[in-house]
Amino acid sequence: MMKLVKLSDKVFYLPGVEELDRPFLYYIKGSNYSIAIDAGSCKSHVQEFYQELKNEGMKLPKYTIITHWHWDHTFGMPYVHGKTIASELTNNKLKEVSQWKWTLKEMKMREQTGEDMAFCNECICKVYKDVSQICVIPSYIEIDSITQLDLGGVTLSLIPRDSTHSRDALFVYFHEEKMLFVGDADCEDHYEENGTYNKKRLRSLIAFIEGIDFEIYLLGHDLPSNKEETLEYLNKKYQELISN
Ligand SMILES: [Zn+2]
Ligand SMILES: [Zn+2]
Fold this sequence. Notes:
One of its GO terms (molecular function) is hydrolase activity. By secondary structure, the protein is an alpha/beta fold. The chain has a domain of 153 residues: Ribonuclease Z/Hydroxyacylglutathione hydrolase-like (Metallo-beta-lactamase, Chain A, 4-Layer Sandwich), CATH 3.60.15. It is built from seven helices and 13 strands. A hairpin with a 4-residue loop joins strand 8 and strand 9. The longest helix is centred in the C-terminal third of the chain and has 17 residues. One zinc ion binds next to helix 2. The site of one zinc ion has 4 residues, from loops.
């Protein structure tokens, strides 16, 4: 079992589990209400997160903000407390995925049509002994432009935009503590770009990140980083792309 990590007085996270492709789940505590970032991959992922919050005497989140549509961030959505918030593009995709049938045969067929990937299905099978239990739902609240939330002493901007990882990224910026939550946004795209970076999308992402005044950078599958390290890493990836 993972333990909740305290990043500041208002920000906590449950670390991810690589073998299960479990992403980091974040919690931001306001004086009026709290929110979570990402729903996780399954019911027990949500339950373990909530148990940790309860152990620390914290309220369950009023909203769970979804960073992008991929299964490891969204299949826990039916089990979260309160309401979910996602971008319009994420919701369009979730509505599509909610129609998918969950049998090993249907999953194999989706790999052949390119709708889904073998890598994802392997991970899904590790998490779900019985894939027929999978339940995919769209979010309750949908946003298509920059949206602010005031949690009480905590101001968040939710910023939907393209990323190098998926078209439907939702970035979360915590103004007072200068934190930027990005989910998997700065990774490669496995669906549209064959697991590589697209030059134009990477350049656009770098410019976006450069333009935000943040100090701490929070990822879907890795430990917190900062602006300097992030830009150094992404600029290196960009240089590699243009020198090829
Ligand atoms: Zn992803
Ligand atoms: Zn992920």
